[in-house]
Amino acid sequence: MEQKLHTPEGVRDIYNRECETKLTLQQKLSTVLHLYGYQDIQTPTFEYDDVFRKEIGSTSTKELYRFFDREGNILALRPDITPSVARAAATLFEGEDLPIRLCYIGNTFINHSSYQGRLKENTQMGAELIGLDSVEADAEMIAMVVDGLKKTGLTEFQVNIGHIDFIQSLLESTGLEEEEKEEIRELITNRNYFGVEEILDNRSVKGSVKDAFRILPELVGGQEVLERAARIAPSANARLALTRLQQIYRLLMIYKAEDHVTFDLSMMGSYGYYTGIIFRAYTYGTGDAVVRGGRYDHLLEKFGKSTPSIGFAIIVDELMSALSRQKISVETSHRNLLVYTEETQRWAIFLARDFRDKGKNIEMIKRDQEDRREKYEKYGKRNGIISMLYLRDDFKIEMVNLRTGEEKIIDAKKKRR
């Protein structure tokens, strides 16, 4: 018996209703990005390995999918689209001195450990605002995230905002070696604050610094969190970070996005190239963030253009999972099914052409005389079809709404007369 092929671990086929839902979601999100003035860009699925080298600060190099071309160059499937956009922008817009707004959609590839149970191929939609370091730029990106998630039908979600400089100032105040600071960063990322406390207790770190790390997990919430954080801010950089967050919040109130905003000053950036504010959007029904973003003011320098930037990526697969578990339906195009026989074929083609001329989609299926209508009703329901037109040899049409079960019969002969 011939063995059936299946997909490798971590990737999957998406088809029928799910695929239609995904494309509809992408269109809704794309509309929001375009309304804010962002223009589309497409970058290659694979790049030279150097675009994602360790110094760039993207995904860990051990999680890259690498391969060679016939000339022996090392190439990599993109694990993250932002470095690709940065590389392209540094080249294509080298002489531009005004802000550049770019948006994209594409698949990313990360070779996660098999034990993590995560997809290795994901679809991301994102936006990058290049050439502007301001609270206005920061607020625009977060407002766009809020508007985009609302557009998909989500109502219960939060955008958590932090700042790299605040937590970096705390780490610097420990006086520890870089290796130990990196260990603390990893522990904080994993929310292992007991591990952080253990390291600090075994080192000659000031009591005030230890106290600051102890209350770090409590610095999550509304505007009052910024006031509390100001009392433990160890440096001018930390205080400037908090001031910037307050300014961003004031603008978000004008955008009417503040109800979906929470501050989280314990947040660590998921990418090493982040330099200022960082943010993630969460909702229930998924185990990971549906949006990740942040400021990366030095990334384009790696590709030859010194300019500040900020961006975000929506993880479409995580978003779809959340919508499904929250039972939020995404309205897709109204699909129709036309079932006909040999005798009604000419009539069916005329009807289908009329539907398509009016911009309505319709699928045609020729049936055998012995087939029962129920067979096609079940097919339609399986494939997300809304209505079925069942042509009879006596030139009557049985119109069935496959969602509600309502039906009516139209006499086409009378209509002709």
> For the largest beta sheet, what order do the strands appear in spatially?
1-5-6-12-11-10-7-9-8
Cα(first) to Cα(last) distance is 59 Å
Instruction: Report low-confidence residues grouped into runs of 5 or more.
Output: none
- Give me the secondary-structure category: alpha+beta
Strand elements, count: 17
Oligomeric grouping of the chains: single chain
Strand fraction: 15-25%
> DSSP helix count?
13
Largest sheet: 9 strands, mixed
Overall mean confidence score, pLDDT: 92
Assign an overall shape: elongated
Helix fraction by DSSP (H/I, runs of at least 4): 25-40%
Element layout with pairings:
Elements: H1 16-35, E1 39-40, E2 46-48, E3 66-68, E4 74-77, H2 82-92, E5 100-109, E6 121-130, H3 135-151, E7 157-163, H4 164-172, H5 178-189, H6 193-201, H7 207-215, E8 220-221, H8 224-230, H9 236-255, E9 261-264, E10 277-283, E11 291-295, E12 309-315, H10 316-325, E13 335-340, H11 345-357, E14 361-366, H12 373-382, E15 387-391, E16 396-401, E17 407-411, H13 412-416
Parallel strand pairs: 1-5, 7-9, 13-14, 13-15
Antiparallel strand pairs: 2-4, 3-4, 5-6, 6-12, 7-10, 8-9, 10-11, 11-12, 15-16, 16-17
